[in-house]
Predict the 3D structure of the following.
Amino acid sequence: MENPLRWDFFISVNDHCSLDVYNILFALGHVMKKIIFGFAALLLMNTAQAANQPTIFVFKCAPEHSKKSTIVTWQDVEKEDGWHRYASWKDRLGDHYGIELYFNGSVPNDEGQLEDIYVFGNMNAAKMIAGPAVTMTFNKKAKKLTYSITNDTVGSDVRTPIEKGNCILSDKG
């Protein structure tokens, strides 16, 4: 049975023009190298772009005395001095966007359970939170996330929540 690939064609086309298998394979290898390096460069570029994309968390929060849920989003944004986290939400007083993380840390509660606390609010000249703020507290042991929204319009230390309740991490608003 005759070989259907006919290697003799690649080795010698005619007396005046001869091609050898090595040159053809080398040429094909060169093309494959370009394709492989092209995909590698594309993958590297996409990975670098993904590293610079902001991270967004969406929380669906249920107030204690209302059936209407509140959506609170966190967004991590890279700036010249590093990463910053911002919160946005809508309450009965209006829409609040880009409120920067003022404080976060872990503290024990009254039962000795560790809680992660995130306070988003704008600082005034006295380094106190002034205006709208949201505090979110995650109890690690109970795996419970609570929130409290305040709106300090007078700049005092007294913070009466206008809304509070429980939250869950959601994939959509």
About this structure: The two ends are 68 Å apart (CA to CA). The first helix runs from residue 7 to 11. Strands lie at 55-63, 70-79, 82-91, 94-108, 114-123, 129-139, 144-152, 163-170.
